[in-house]
Design brief:
71 residues, alpha+beta, Metal Transport, Frataxin, Chain A, 3-stranded antiparallel beta sheet, 3 strands
């Protein structure tokens, strides 16, 4: 199994948008994305630091993606 990459919120946002997620709305410093087909909802905290591994894993579970999709 591949190792989890270190990602910034901006990079993760671009990856999710390439996978078909669209920006639904923004609440404070969090961007809420929604997939038009599967109707899954993903929340990304949009801060300047790298995202913690636990947050990336949580976003992967919300989106239904795997670690391979991030590489």
């Amino acid at each position: 199994m591949p190792k989890l990459p270190v990602l910034t919120p901006k990079k993760l946002l671009l990856i999710l948008q390439r996978k078909g997620f669209l920006t639904d709305h923004t609440t404070g410093s969090h961007i809420i994305l929604r997939h038009p087909v599967s109707l899954k909802r993903v929340v990304i905290p949009f801060h300047t630091k790298d995202l913690p591994k636990g947050t990336i894993i949580s976003i992967l579970k919300q989106s239904g993606l795997t670690k391979k999709d991030l590489i």
